[in-house]
Each structure stands twice: as C-alpha cells, then as structure tokens.
Specification:
Shape: globular
Structural class: alpha/beta
Radius of gyration: 19 Å
Helix content: 40-55%
CATH superfamily of the largest domain: HUPs
Number of strands: 9
Strand content: 15-25%
CATH topology of the largest domain: Rossmann fold
Distance between the termini: 40 Å
Number of domains: 2
Strand order of the largest sheet: 1-4-3-2-5-6
Number of helices: 10
Order of helices and strands: EHEHEHHEHHHEHEHHEEE
CATH class of the largest domain: Alpha Beta
Length: 278
C-alpha cells in the first residue's frame, strides 16, 4: 500500500493511474477503522481498479471542541487493517495540508442541513461538505463509497455533488452490525459494558418499527419507538423520526420510500442509527 501525506504527491501518483485508463474508487474516513469501513473498501474493490482510502479527522465538522479532542485516533492499527484488505493507497494528511487557516465555505443546501442531525449539530454539514469537496478535487475518483449509517450525510453529499456538478458517482453501502445488532461505529469504543447493553435498544427499536411498518400508523410507531428508547436506563433520546428517504421531511402514509432515523446519547457517547423501511 502506498501512503501519501501531501496533496501534490497523491495527485501526481493518481494522474498516472488515470492516464493508464484505470478507475479509482474512494473511501473517505476519519479513521478508527472497523469492519464497517472495511466493507466499503471491499465493495469499492469489486467495482474499481485502484482504491484510495483517506484518514483525516476533520476539525471543521465538529461543533464541540471536546468531541474533536476525544475522537479516537488509531493510525497505526488503521494502516495495518488497510494493508490486510489490500487497499492500494492511503491518504493521511495533516490539518495544515487540508486547510490554510483563512478559508470561507458556505454551501446552500436548504433545509437538508437544518433537519435531524443538522438541528442538533449546527454547522456540522458545512464542515462535511467542505472537506469532502476538497477530497474529491484531490483524489478525482470515479466512484466514492459511504456507509448508510450516516444516512443524512449521504443525502447532503449527494446534494453537494449535484450543486457543484462534480463528476463522481456515489454509492451508499449497507450498515455493518455487530452480532447483537449494534451498528458498528468508531465511537463504540467509548461505551462502557453497561452502555453497550443499553445501546442495543436503538437497533431493537428500529427492527421493531420495520416489522410493524405496514400494519401501524406512522405517528403511533414513532411515539411508541420514542417511548421504548426513552425508557431504557442511561439512554437520552435526541430524536426518532420516520422520514421520507429522499427529502428527510416527516413521512406520511403516501411516502414511497421511508427511513427511520434515531440519535441518542448512551452514557456519554452520542450514537446514530437508521433502517430503511420501504
């Protein structure tokens, strides 16, 4: 695996790949890699000649400096994992390589960035689009792969690609779960043993909603789901929403594609999860 820390060296290398007519698949990450990330790389490998994974903990998408500080950084273990799955290229830049300190970025995504996650993490999606736009311009991938667990993020990046007319195809890959249903996340390492058990209420509730989706009213499903999660010790619900899969507005009985999304604090760790309903 080739490792690059500067934009210029990476671009020079990838220009040769492109010149040889090879396709580039790209998996952007913030590191602390787990099997969910590796499943994105495997999917990318099936559809492209060369795979680039980036590891960059992006400061502009954290609205809480403490959250940025405690975000897990495990670059040595991450590098070993990428080598084990035969990733071709790792891009691991420093912050001053990606930001020059006096940049201004604002992308008008409309209400998409103010709903759900956007409401609880104002400014978060400006930071996400800023860094993904930079990375797309550096890597110039044919296809980029993102996990379904960050469902709203995928919608936001799709909107950015459309607004900026970027020549990249986006692929959303299924959520990878632990055997007991917990969605894999870099943040799971912060869960205590008790937290870990209480966190299972999120996936259990999502599965329950999916099972009952065709036979119950949306409003009653949503209120029952919120009650189930709120009743779990050590879990503080932020939102449980059954939404239109394309707009993320609240779903109604005529919505064609629906998704249930949840965010909650379990102990001190904030977790998100979702399930596609129809």
């Amino acid at each position: 695996m080739k490792i690059f820390t500067t934009k210029q060296a990476l671009q020079q290398y990838l220009a040769q790949i492109k010149a040889a007519g090879k396709t580039i698949g790209f998996v952007p990450t913030m590191g602390a890699l787990h099997l969910g990330h590796l499943s994105l790389i495997e999917q990318a490998q099936q559809q492209n000649d060369v795979i680039v994974c980036s590891i960059f903990v992006n400061p502009s998408q954290f609205n809480d400096p403490k959250d940025l500080e405690k975000y897990p950084r495990t670059i040595e273990a991450d590098t070993r994992l990428l080598e084990q799955v035969n990733c071709d290229v790792l891009f691991n830049p420093e912050v001053n390589e990606m930001y020059d300190g006096n940049e201004h970025w604002h992308l008008n995504m409309g209400e998409l960035e103010r709903l759900l996650e956007g409401k609880f993490r104002p400014g978060h999606y400006q930071g996400v689009t800023q860094i993904v736009y930079k990375l797309f311009n550096i890597v110039n991938p044919d296809t980029a792969y993102f996990g379904q667990k960050d469902y709203q993020q995928f919608a936001v990046i799709s909107k950015m690609v459309e607004l900026m007319q970027l020549p990249v195809k986006l692929v959303m890959c299924a959520i990878k779960r632990e055997d007991d249903g917990l969605a894999m996340s870099s943040r799971n390492i912060h869960l205590t043993a008790d937290d870990r058990l209480h966190a299972l209420i999120l996936s259990k509730t999502l599965y329950w909603v999916k099972e009952n989706f065709s036979s119950h009213q949306i409003a009653s499903l949503q209120s029952e789901a919120a009650s189930l999660i709120s009743a779990e010790p050590g879990v503080e619900l932020e939102y449980f929403e059954i939404a239109d899969g394309s707009t993320l507005h609240p779903a109604n009985e005529s919505t064609k594609s629906a998704v249930a999304l949840v965010a909650a604090k379990v102990g001190k760790t904030r977790l998100i999860d979702n399930i596609i309903l129809s």
